[in-house]
Amino acid sequence: MAKSFDRRAFLATSAAALGAGAVPATAQTENTTQMEEPVEIVRRNISSFRSLDWRPYFSNLKGGACLVDTTSRALHYWSADQSVYKLYPTSVPLTDDLTRTGRTSVVRKVEGPSWRPTPAMKKRNPEWPDFVGPGPDNPLGTHALYLSWTYYRIHGTHDTRKIGRRSSNGCIGLYNEHIQELYALTGVGTQVLLI
Is 70 exceeded by the pLDDT of residue 182? Predict the structure, then answer.
């Protein structure tokens, strides 16, 4: 005799299993109870983004301000007159030893940047090229904001898989469309704080 499938019982037990986490769920059929595989809930890319006020981080907004939060992997921007607030997802350095925190500022802006690996990058990755000009293979994407710290940048990336991850060698990466927008909003002298 063929067993019939009770859709309501299946949906009810599935919903209960999802609410309970990775617990074996049972599905009722007309005549028997059968065990199903455990249901495992996997959460990926859960955003911890939240709007922030600039006051705990900056004494003023002269020249505008960027706050880079390496824990939440987000960049916050406030304009000098407080009329613009932006929040962007970022990539952050692979490891804590590659991460520099503290206060700096934008010292140079480049559209279509070229890229050279730092001596430390070249030592870790000798196969990398010595120079990459502007274009789709350039790790700095379409725009770069050079910081007062040597070798540190806020820049775009053509590899969108890197955003939201620990994936850089020290810089802060944004989607190309976001760095283009931030590039237009910032100027030389914009305050930057990495936490």
Answer: yes
Query: Is 0.85 surpassed by the pTM of this model?
Result: no
pLDDT 10s digits, 53-90? 999 999 999 999 999 999 999 999 999 999 999 999 99
130-157 burial code (b ≥16 CB/10 A, e <16): eebeeeeebbbbbbbbbbeeebbbbbbb
- Burial (CB count <10 Å: 0-12, 13-18, 19+), residue 64: buried
Annotated active-site residue in 66, 76, 143, 155: 155
Q: Is residue 155 flagged as an active site residue? A: yes
Q: Which of the residues 66, 76, 143, 171 is marked catalytic?
A: 171
